[in-house]
């Protein structure tokens, strides 16, 4: 019997189910396998299984504290490293394996948890455990280190900390060295040598990072070249010699090296705290850190509180299901990834350098779909804040926004950006039943005097898309739609996007339903110079948009064209030599309700036949011959938008199959990219972390077919969470309550769900005696039968037992 608490074991690790941890058992992962620190607050970080990764404060571009390089062969550097040196033998090693990689640990284990990482290892009788986390509500990052002497002789050791500080903004740190390189200044606290000030992050110095250790150090170094001396990061002269030199950096790469000497009797252990903190006031930072240093009970309690908080959030929706890999995803890791996306959008990851893109408008709005149930208030605030930052009077949105400055950034001209706001608002109203969000008033970014409620903003989003239709009655593609690479520029008046046409139909229908909820049906909309009721307008938009894609874009081969090109010709059609079929419009035709059942089935069959591979669904096929013209032609065949298995739209196909009622097909699509399944057979080739989704897997036309890249920050997370929990498992918030509408493999005999919803908790038992995929025969709530499959909102704050029989 296999242990049900251990899932998806490979040579690199496994899921520890009850601990909610992914355990990495080898330091030689095929790529840095990363986790995040700082789930709620202003101080944030990334930490790999060998302790690599940066720390930043509020914004990885403007307020980067420590360095990290995602590029180059020697990836995953630098990090929160520690060197240990045995004074008698002179041998030294790194308890996290990096950077002294030539010294192999006798044992090694890394546990990535929800907002913390623990690395335990041993070398020559010395066991070390390091924990990294940021306590809730604090702007300090703690590295707790326990060093234990497991040998039978007394040991004299020196521990050397390591941090590499950024001298300025992250961009200037890389691009403007003649400037940033001269900002470096450090100081050791005059009264307490446990504190090091890095005076480079701001011009005032008041908000400078403070780096500290719990023991009075035997020395320090801050000059990188002194620390390395005639050695290297793997073999630093100071560590080799066993003594720091107390160097103070002036115009150098600034490092934070403290030397702590330890004497340990056999069996004895010592706890060290290594802390990096920041706030607007350096003296305050020092005072805060001083309270934590040496108070190990407090440190441990803070880690436990962080975990409890995180578990409570992801547990707001949980399942007992017959598939172990799906279970670890829906119950922990996919939910956690959604949370991380909410927090960091596309700013900083193993693939996002944190120097360019901030928060994407479309990306963040989609991220809300997977985060909504964890913190509806947080989602509401983000929705309002984001829209206030990016939306213009004509209804369009800027493509990005800065979470730090709360300002829109970048271009408008993406034809899809604004429409995602309607789905995010609908998801909020369905989750909470609170339509008052639609009354929240705020201005447009280009018209500070034009203040309207959110409802009006959403109406303008729909109007923008409707008004910008081209010659086939389908919205213009402009710079791009969801697919960043297929547009021909903001000024292109000819190209049209079938995907956006479908999105428009769906947005109009969602908004029409919200209109009913807030009794805004007769709210006036200006259309062709006259005023008409919002409901009439939205009904007209919905039916015109649906008719246009059905009349103009359906191809008799059995799928929808992707759009119309600059000459007004359809593309994504069988007559094309390249890109005969694209994924995006096929599931959207079903999701938006524009395809009738026959077309829905036909178009999804085409997806299966032409785009599906064992590793997921390719974005288009055949891919295009690469050309240096920009767009997706720039990529090799089978990579990224040029026919790669773009993971983000894969769950759209799962949703569509569930709407069509084909549980086996939905599950097959779902499993193909589910990380714990997808990585299991060949984790080395798969390469990426087995616990989080990536943006991309290379497709069959690519030499790396099946390899995964771009993990953590990707819309793949939110959409898979929606597809799996709301469509396969079918626990779906709806306008009037919580719908129970599973679409499962018919072989499943049933499953359980526990869902917090509008203040109550529903414990739902679902049985499938007839072996169907879809269909609900009967539902009881607290023993009482109800009509239909939408659980009523009871609102007494209690727990309600629900029994559902499929059939
Ligand atoms: C990237 C972008 C996302 C876009 C997708 C497809 O994931 O972050 O906004 O939709 O690529 O081009």
Describe it.
It is a single chain. The protein is α+β, with helices and mostly antiparallel strands. The strands form 13 sheets. An eleven-stranded antiparallel β-sheet has the order 1-2-3-9-10-11-12-19-16-15-14. A six-stranded mixed β-sheet has the order 20-42-43-47-44-45. A hairpin with a 3-residue loop joins strand 29 and strand 30. The two termini are 32 Å apart. The mean pLDDT is 95. The structure holds alpha-D-glucopyranose (GLC). Residues 346, 360, 362-363, 482-485, 641, 648, 695, 714 line the site of alpha-D-glucopyranose (GLC).
Low-pLDDT stretches are none
- Strand arrangement across the biggest beta sheet: 1-2-3-9-10-11-12-19-16-15-14
What characterizes the major β-sheet? Answer: 11 strands, antiparallel
Number of helices: 20
* Outline: globular
What structural category do the secondary elements indicate? Answer: alpha+beta
Radius of gyration: 28 Å
Question: Can you give the mean pLDDT?
Answer: 95
- Separation of the first and last Cα atoms: 32 Å
Counted beta strands = 47
Percent of sequence in beta strands: 25-35%
Name every ligand kind in the structure. Answer: alpha-D-glucopyranose
Q: Helix content range of the residues, please?
A: 25-40%
